[in-house]
Amino acid sequence: MFKKPEKVYIGDVTIRDGFQHEEKYVSLDAKTTYAELLILAGVKRLELTNFGNPYSMPQFKDRHELMKRVRNSKHLKKANVNWDEIELTVVTIRERAVDIAIEAKKEGYGPDRILMMVSTDEEHHYANSGTTLPEYWKEAERCIKKARDVGININGTVSTIWGSPISGPTKLEDAVLFAKHWLEIGAHDVEHADHDGSSTPDDVYRYFSMLLDAIPDPMKHIAHFHTTRGWGLANVYSALQAGVVCFESTIGGIGGQPANFLDDCPVAGTGEYYYKNPNEVGLVCTEDMVLMMEEMGIDTGIDFENIFRIGILIEKTLNRRLRSESIRSGPIPKEPNESFKRIGLKERKLEQGEQLNQRF
What we know:
Elements: E1 9-12, H1 14-18, H2 28-40, E2 45-50, H3 63-71, H4 74-78, E3 87-91, H5 95-106, E4 113-119, H6 122-129, H7 133-149, E5 153-159, H8 172-184, E6 189-194, H9 201-214, E7 221-225, H10 232-242, E8 246-249, E9 261-262, E10 265-266, H11 286-295, H12 304-318, H13 326-329, H14 338-341, H15 345-359
Parallel strand pairs: 1-8, 2-3, 3-4, 4-5, 5-6, 6-7, 7-8
Antiparallel strand pairs: 9-10
Helix pairs in contact: 2-3, 2-12, 5-7, 8-9, 9-10, 11-12
């Protein structure tokens, strides 16, 4: 039996990773509202947008205004939100986006943290960034220095750890070396990402055990699982057993590869979808993970009832049923069902017997 942590840290990436896969534009008002609601529900770490070129990903054409609205939110001010406890992240895959984030920081609305990304599969990395790995590592080193000079933390993401949708199998040992290198060149923390649901619970445990042997500070590592094949929460549990305490997820389990169609128009995205069914590639669901942790006696700092409400609202925004099971079933009952308490077991058996007699 493993020793459960007393607390875990769940970062919600709905507004960036979740909405980027949607083939409809989610309005600026909706994004702002959900950012506010997530913070008020107790989420401390939010990934809000992408500062890359919106030509390819027009879902993020509102990136600057969204950051400004959240930073200056009257609702959050009225609730006396302590901004020292909140971390807003934006994705900045390339140096131009990093420079934009730095300027936004100087103007008072920029991010607390930015994200850059490498893939252990060089083909996947090139498709994602347009550069070779050696070129990108040099670029990342420059970016880390100038971002830290203005007080922005950098997350270095490692992708294709458990396999690549382009090239197939990869080596876990490569990902450990990549994680080490991110920290050596100044990254604040590392996201370990399974972007297409290639990981299995046994390999998740094996990888994070190797990783924490090599880099034993659990606060330096974030586990990011997609649940394409349905075992995302099993992977979360395996990572938890290995010693991971930081996770990422999306409301309703949405998300995936950037959309290549928005509203009525084809867009570039990152090219053709990697998946047979692009509607089945989302992340681990925030509602389900929060409830699972709470039922296990692990503190998340997040109000699961408010998270459930947000899940129901986002289903209305996207006009479809999402992946969350917990918002349908709720917490595990702690008391007997009231409707059964009124009738004893003996009476119920007699009642059922009478119903059978009437039928036959």
